[in-house]
Automatic annotation (TrEMBL):
Keywords: ATP-binding, Cell membrane, Ion transport, Iron, Iron transport, Membrane, Nucleotide-binding, RNA-binding, Transport. Its EC number is 7.6.2.9. One of its GO terms (cellular component) is membrane. The lineage of its organism: Bacteria, Bacillati, Bacillota, Clostridia, Helicovermis. GO terms for molecular function: ABC-type ferric iron transporter activity; ABC-type quaternary ammonium compound transporting activity; ATP binding; ATP hydrolysis activity; RNA binding. It is an enzyme of class 7 (translocase). Pfam families: ABC_tran (PF00005). The keyword Cell membrane applies. Residues 3-233 form the ABC transporter domain. This is ABC-type quaternary amine transporter.
Length: 336
């Protein structure tokens, strides 16, 4: 189902938590809302679900304004940060809870439970109590419960934050498969940029209740609109210079820019886009951090004393103090 959020704002007391945010999610897409703790991510999700009311703005689902419709009439599934299973009910009863409220027959509930147990790979757990299953299994049950009544939209609020890294990656891959199979629209809240990059068709990055950029993972990483977005999405090298006519002159070269370009801009290049050339000189290796086959170098320019962050995958680790050259491919440079 298509979802359109129009100019929603929300204050708690005098604190602006969400400020004039608009975005759209196409049917069957997975959008991540990414931002630091306190950015307003969960508030946006709760406004969409209808559990809190925005001070202004509207929620449109499939062309219908649901802003003033009660949560139970919106046909939206919600997965919380913690599973919140009913401790006195077994797995099967937890999954069927919303179906009983909707007066499904026992036969249909049994059939639906079987489908969901298979979909979430938790077959054989239906008679177990929440206290008898692992944290990862509990979250799978919570997802099954949220999907049980065939919601139009699934909202997920940092559902894997309490899981270990390996299990988080496994659950992320499972959600992506489920989304592709069911063609369900998902809005996924996270503070983990790697998780958002791996899962999403689009990412909505917010900070302090404001929208910074909504774009594909590739574009938001390689073509950020601001320095703030660039830094949030990963390590950066910013290169300043002097603008003269259409020419931006920097220590790594001269670059043609469009006419009437604002002089207050910089160049961006990511660490892995810079290449080390051991046959050249002009730069000194200041430090090196090795993680597996990946080496993260701090490389200092002898001419300007500017330090560049360079990432390389190689078995040949360069030592501190070694003089090298750096190559800055022009096609890898982005203007901000």
């Amino acid at each position: 189902m298509n979802i359109e959020i129009k100019n929603i704002s929300k204050k708690f007391g005098e604190t602006k938590v969400v400020e004039d945010i608009s975005f759209k999610v196409e049917k069957g897409d997975l959008l991540s809302i990414l931002g630091e703790s306190g950015a307003g991510k969960t508030t946006i999700l709760r406004i969409i679900a209808g559990t809190i009311k925005a001070d202004s703005g509207s929620i449109i689902i499939d062309g219908k304004d649901v802003t003033n419709i009660s949560p139970d009439k919106r046909n939206i599934g919600y997965v919380f940060q913690t599973p919140l299973l009913f401790p006195h009910m077994n797995v099967e009863a937890n999954i069927c809870f919303s179906l009983e409220i909707r007066k499904w027959t026992k036969e249909k509930m049994k059939e639906r439970t079987k489908e969901l147990l298979e979909l979430l790979h938790i077959e054989g757990l239906e008679k177990r109590m929440p206290s008898e299953i692992s944290g990862g299994q509990k979250q799978r049950v919570a997802i099954a419960r949220a999907l049980a009544f065939n919601p139009r939209v699934l909202l997920m609020d940092e559902p894997f934050s309490s899981l270990d890294p390996r299990l988080r990656e496994e659950m992320g891959a499972l959600i992506k498969k489920i989304q592709e199979k069911l063609k369900i629209t998902i809005i996924f809240v996270t503070h983990d940029r790697d998780e958002s990059m791996a899962l999403s068709k689009e990412i909505l990055l917010i900070s302090k209740g404001k929208k910074l950029q909504k774009d594909s993972p590739k574009n938001i990483y390689y073509s950020p609109k601001t320095k703030e977005v660039a830094k949030y999405m990963g390590d950066c090298n910013f290169i300043s210079g002097i603008l003269s006519d259409n020419l931006f002159k920097t220590e790594i070269g001269e670059f043609k820019v469009p006419k009437n370009t604002n002089s207050n801009f910089v160049l961006l290049i990511r660490p892995h886009q810079i290449k080390i050339d051991e046959t050249r000189s002009g730069y000194l290796i200041e430090s090196c951090k090795v993680i597996g086959k990946k080496a993260l170098y701090m490389v200092n320019s002898k001419k300007t004393q500017k330090t560049f962050l360079v990432e390389e995958f190689s078995n040949n680790i360069l030592q501190t103090g070694v003089e090298v050259g750096l190559i800055f491919p022009k096609h890898s440079i982005h203007y901000i």
